């Protein structure tokens, strides 16, 4: 069991600006050097790597790809839409795909 939230995101240019705004709202910064409060930049998110952040709500892992390089678009057909309240819908990988990706 982990206590962070993993988000696989689209590296589409339009989406990256929204992610940066969300990180700012969440007061996010890289957790590897917490004393410096370094924030991700557009180039960090566009690289498709892992951005491991601390936020005012706890740990947040922003993942440009997972498993053997699977991107958001690769896995979108394997995601189910789930309403989390207030009209907010998130996509969650189906269990079979999540297990398969984690094994790689």
Helix and strand arrangement:
Layout: E1 5-8, H1 13-25, E2 29-30, H2 42-46, E3 50-55, E4 58-63, H3 72-75, E5 79-85, E6 88-93, H4 95-103
Parallel strand pairs: 1-4
Antiparallel strand pairs: 2-3, 3-4, 5-6
What would your notes on this structure say?
The protein has 104 residues and is of the alpha+beta class. Helices cover 30% and strands 30% of the residues. The chain contains 4 helices and 6 strands. It has helices at 13-25, 42-46, 72-75, 95-103, and strands at residues 5-8, 29-30, 50-55, 58-63, 79-85, 88-93. The strands form 2 sheets. A 4-stranded mixed sheet has the order 1-4-3-2, with no helix packed on it. Strands 5-6 form a two-stranded antiparallel sheet. The protein starts with a strand and ends with a helix.
Keywords:
104 residues, alpha+beta, two-stranded antiparallel ribbon, 30% helix
Can I get a quick summary?
The mean pLDDT is 93.
């Amino acid at each position: 069991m982990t206590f962070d939230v993993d988000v696989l995101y689209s590296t589409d240019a339009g989406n990256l600006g929204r992610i940066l705004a969300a990180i700012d709202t969440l007061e996010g910064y890289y957790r590897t050097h917490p004393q410096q409060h370094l924030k991700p930049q557009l180039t960090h998110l566009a690289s498709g790597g892992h951005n491991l952040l601390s936020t005012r709500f706890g740990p947040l892992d922003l993942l440009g790809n997972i498993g053997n390089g699977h991107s958001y678009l690769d896995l979108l057909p394997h995601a189910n839409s789930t309403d989390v309240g207030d009209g907010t819908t998130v996509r969650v990988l189906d269990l079979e795909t999540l297990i398969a990706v984690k094994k790689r």
